[in-house]
Amino acid sequence: MRILGVSSFYHDSAAALIVDGEIVAAAQEERFTRIKHDAGFPEKAIAYCLKEGEVALQDIDQVVFYDKPFLKFERLLETYLSFAPKGFKSFKMAVPIWLKEKLFQKDLLRRKFKEFDSTFDWQNKLLFSEHHLSHAASAFYPSPYDKAIVLTMDGVGEWAASSVAIGNGNKLDIVKEMHFPHSLGLLYSAFTYYTGFRVNSGEYKVMGLAPYGEPKFKELILDKLVDLKEDGSFRMDQDYFNYCTGLTMTNDKFAELFGRPARRPDVDKLEQFHMDVAASVQAVAEEIVLRITRSLAKEYPDIPNLCLAGGVALNCVANGKILRDNAFKNIWIQPAAGDAGGALGAALNGYYFFNEKERTVTGKDHMKGSYLGPVFDEKDIQLRLQAVGAVYNVAENVEAMIEACVDALEEEKVVGWFQGRMEFGPRALGGRSIIGDPRSEEMQKTMNLKIKYRESFRPFAPSVRAEDVSDWFDLDTESPYMLIVSDVAQKRRKTMTEEEEALFGIDKLNVVRSEIPAVTHVDYSARIQTIHKETNPKYHALVSRFKERCGSPVVVNTSFNVRGEPIVCTPEDAFRCFMGTEMDVLVLGNCVLKKNEQNPRLALDYKNAFTLD
Fold first, then answer.
1. pTM over the 0.85 mark
2. Helices within 126-259 (DSSP H only)
3. Which is more confident, 288 or 510?
4. Regarding beta strands 171-179 and 160-168, do their DSSP bridges make them parallel or antiparallel, or are they unpaired?
5. Which domains, from first to last, does the chain contain?
6. CA angle 187, 188, 193 (to 5 degrees)
């Protein structure tokens, strides 16, 4: 049975293909259109999935959309009626768009799909899942567990902003929901807006900024903004927020509470105040999720497994706290936890929930390392490089290619690594990565300012061989999808001087804290990716060789893109990014490119090529 899942028309549109329960392909539309968080109909992602599955649209048994647009429209109307006459300006802007484009999405989807195949039976084969059910399905069905609690937290779906489901075999039932406007995702987004970052893309910046501050406003938030109960349920005082009826996330009363207006990103500098605000909302988010998970563990003592999905599940700092709290024995997080993953969940929901197919559990997850995107063979890579005028050498074999990479890393050069299938989800996991030597004291600054063109405070992740993780970090479990934050092992840390200990805020940035300073955040934490030979043998071999030569089973891993750009998909994307940054070496398959050998006329001004995120 072949099922196509689709998410679109909000942000991070995507498509996924399931064949007889196996995840065959999944990709975000942004990777093909080069528009970050592309919300349009995922035409190119669908075409890729069909090509990867070697099927035509007429061979698809069902197409499942990830939410129910009419219920979203119902929420919009009820929300505006609840707050009327407040927010009429926003209402007047929103309703015509809904009436024209969103309310009748079923017809819109049919029209879009008819461009693929005008004879397809959309009347009977186009199905709709609910938003949180799609998220829950994306987390439970690919997980290693036969039975699990599934916690979904995001901004909002149709009505639900947080939900709890019980997964058992091929069954998945939502048993609890917390409804809009009381949303942990929207609370975090409100502070994202207030600290001057873009909503729906800048939340991870708030998380990265938090360790530079102190949670001075945590009690103020819990006293004035959030009425938090012991079980983690809460209500938000809407007098301080503007997202229900306005065009901004927070209002003047919110600004008065914190003593200053929202930061204007192009005008106002980041100050210690903003770092303290970030630390405070992060602390509140952690408090909420820990209360929820502890309460669920007590309520369902016979279920030791927890699955996480929804945008809040990308908060890897909170995930690390859940793991160390030990309320649940096992935790698994969907790597595409945001709305892109809804496409995968919709397809899985179609297979198991709508069609009641049997589910096989093997003890391993079924995401294939999240390497579910396009792949390019050696001949294709070479033809594409020739077409763009690249100068390259072809290594004799994989071992020689890896040796060339390690040579570059040892010389503290920055390497673009393009191998195998592209990752599904927001993280680069060794398929489309930029890598460096974590022992370098300058690598974080170099990568942020000269490669990624982004804020200097942003941390980088370590990729570490799974068999070495506990020797370098306070983590004794797998973290293949870079969704767990843990501390650098005590024996790997360096003792700070009294002067260094006295620093605060952004001044902490340049202090060398460990043997791997490029991936050690200011609080000694790191967002860890464990590398597994079974899912990515080339990347594992690279880091293994780096360990043999340099003593470190760790490399710096960041996504292959610049700030505001989607992760690269094709060899051409990779070459453009290579030529538009100060990256030193690019490796695609066995093709090795050195910057100093390229035609300088092909250099690009990449710093301002994309809208800042």
1. yes
2. 131-140, 184-194, 203-209, 218-220, 252-258
3. 288
4. antiparallel
5. 2-144+334-366 (3.30.420.40), 184-331 (3.30.420.40), 378-602 (3.90.870.20)
6. 100
